[in-house]
Specification:
Layout: E1 3-9, H1 18-31, E2 34-40, H2 47-57, E3 62-67, H3 69-79, E4 87-92, H4 98-102, H5 110-119, E5 122-130, E6 133-135, E7 138-142, H6 143-149, H7 153-159, H8 161-171, E8 178-184, E9 187-193, E10 195-199, E11 221-226, H9 231-242, E12 253-258, E13 260-265, E14 271-274, E15 277-281, E16 284-296, H10 312-333
Parallel strand pairs: 1-2, 1-3, 3-4
Antiparallel strand pairs: 5-6, 5-16, 7-10, 7-14, 8-9, 8-13, 10-11, 11-12, 13-16, 14-15
Helix pairs in contact: 1-5, 2-3, 7-8
Length: 339
Amino acid sequence: MQKRCRIIYNPTSGREALKNDLVEILNILERAGYETSAFATTPEPNSARNEATRAAEAGFNLIIAAGGDGTINEVVNGIAPLKHRPKLGIIPAGTTNDYARALKIPRDNPIAAAKVIAKGNTVKMDIGKANDKYFVNIAAGGLLSELTYSVPSEFKTLFGYLAYLVKGAELLPRVKPINMHLEYDHGVYDGKASMFFVALTNSVGGFEQIVPDASLDDGKFTLIVVKTSNLLEMMRLITMVLNGGKHISDPNILYVKTSKLVAKPVDEKMMINIDGEYGGDAPMKFQNLKRHIEFFANTKDIPDSAITEIGEDALDEAKKHFVDGVQELDESDNIKLDK
């Protein structure tokens, strides 16, 4: 039976360049053995999520989220609750494209991203659950939430990640800590903090050193709590992030691995950001769903330390290359190997 693929694309993501490449993307996937069709999301709420659920229940083998991190989040929310989940591919067309960055998928070339999918290498990725919502990259409370909500969507489209940096510089002097109660695997944090976040990958807001030891499939979040709101200390921490992730041992940072987190406000409201969008208010429970969804990825460029197991397709491909290599060695050097 021929495999089927459904591309769910956001026609307004980024600078709207994706539509120009759509025909070539369809051809690449058809040549890879998929009967491929496309669905353009609409302004209606949950358009991508609803189509992802429909396609999964209709038996599609592969769903591709083509757009920004928001489109990926919607597609994941469409299939994560299902018992039988298709594989997912990503064609980036957004602003920061954190998830594509973590999977080493080309972020400025949709055709190259489609070729990564056609190659067939996959990783079974952890995803997060926050109460009844799912996320693939990060959930946060505090400064990061305020920063994301304060950047107008048209600024994100025109100026990309620069828009976040400009808005962040504007907001830092106004940041104040709030009292938080955070329960994690082996401890509790009670005290003031300017923000906390739980991360699933090493790419947070375009920075790849915030979680320098990230694993994509070990069943653990990285919990980071920023205890200070002092402007000079915050700037120093940012410098440490950029200087190889040295912030993780700073006394103003709590940095731990955990499979779950319960976040509760103490004396004021605490909004929760889920993959860059408002996800509700605390109290909120976060749970890591280990190796829950299989994503196509550029596995050769992902550090070995970030993956504990590769997907079945990638394993088959590795075995094929090993057998081919043995045959070439046997024929060229006349070396016989024990079977």
